[in-house]
Amino acid sequence: xxxxxxxKINISQNMKKRLTSHVLIVALIxxxxxxxxxFVDLLLSERSSLLYDVQRxxxxxxxxxxxxxxxxxxxxxxxxxxxxxxxxxxxxxSNKADVDIEFKTExxxxxxxxxTLYLALIKMNMSFDLKSLRNTKINNDTLANIIxxxxxxxxxxxxxxxxxxxxxxxxNGEEFDVKGYTKNSFIVDVSKFLxxxxxxxxxxxxxxxGSQSFTYYPYTKQSILNLSGDYIPEFTGSFLPSTRxxxxxxxxxxYENHQLATGILDYYVTxxxxxxxxxxxxxxxxxxxxxxxxxxxRLTKYAILFISITFTIILCFEIIKNIILSxxxxxxxxxSLIVFxxxxxxxxxxxxxxxxxxxxxxxxxxxxxxYIKAIFHDKKIFISIVTTLVSLYSxxxxxxxxxxxxxxxxxxxxxxxxxFIMYITKNLSEKVD
Length: 433
What we know:
single chain, six-stranded antiparallel beta sheet, 29% strand, 14 helices, Immunoglobulin-like, disordered N terminus, alpha+beta
């Protein structure tokens, strides 16, 4: 193929003198093409920021990232000495908590952008040891002797305005209403059980609205959390599921966490629990881990490699045909390779990124290949450059989608190109001499 390149390379005397300087000029052009590539990166960053702003405008009216704790009890120690600045609140965790959460998701669109919203149906069952609570010693005093008669069940979360509905709250079988609110919690007064019961059993069901992510803090000695939903989220946070099953459009996951793993204490003084235990969390991410802009950004990281390989192949064709392209022609080819990313970015906002990639790759392959054919007037070179560009675009797409094998695929591509260059130029020194 290619007129028996290995035996018939014939370099003119004039080309010998110009070849070294020509290669240096082509290398300089490759580096200078990073400037228009920078503008593509800036445009991509701008579009990504616009996506974030639009998603935030959608989610602000629905609910943002929800952060939820296991409910805990709060007792109040009144001020006893002049030296004490104010009353002291003490927070107690539950002995055990069983939590079931079901997520129902939907897509909301604004212009070309979409955001994933969810409605979380939450069922909680937990128990508290009131006898142990009353016998707890703080500053050498038994708690039962120094607290007032207040006992509050508190649930902390991101924002009360995103509580969609509180279906019921039952304490030892008796239904209670929410008695108080702060911006980030709601409170149930269970003071009547402080001295009359040794155990407090809580059942509650409510729904919250949110988007982007959901975080749960297991503020309990033993936590069992069961999650399910019609979406496949990314599992992050401090703990991974003990068991999980993923279907086409749904998931189920279970977590079991003990106090030893979470590092949470039995009680905290002066509302320090929610401030000091922010790392022991279970988190679900409802954003696509790889959105279109992230994928295109990965593709742009290989731009200089793509340009270098294409220029190197063209240099080999120059050697074969004893034709030197002008720097302007190399600039035109290089700019065409950069324009590929603009075409891809523009199309991806209206159709899927895969179809956009195929269309952009076909457009640029066709334009560059016919341009090369017009320069060299050689059908075999035309077929070779088409094959090369199609192969490069195919491998590049595979690399950015197969993160696990990206380094291996990239290295294999370089080795194949290097082998091809070696084959093309194996008789070069002999012919020059």
